[in-house]
Amino acid sequence: MTTSRRTAGPLPLSSAKVTFVLPADTPAAEVSVVGDFNDWRPGVHALTPRKDGNRAVTVELPKDSTHSFRYLAAGGHWFNDDTADDQDGPNSRIHT
Does pTM surpass 0.85? Predict the structure, then answer.
C-alpha cells in the first residue's frame, strides 16, 4: 500500500511540502516518484529509507494546484498510489 502525506513547515505562502511514503519492501527495488512537477524524470525524487522502516521523499509544490504522478521502480515497473487524492487515466493525482 502506498501513502502520500502533506506536511507543514516554514515555506513561502505559495508552497506546500508533500511527502510521498512507501513501505521499505513494496516493491523491494529502488523507487522514485515521477510526475509533472519534475518533468517525468526518473531518479530526480528517489525515495530514501527512514528510521520507521518506510521510504520517503518530500517535494515542494505550489499551493492550490493539482499534480499528476506515478512511482517508478527499478526494472521499469510503474505503479500508482491507491491513496492519492484522485486518478487521471494511468496517473495518480495530488491536490495541494
Answer: no
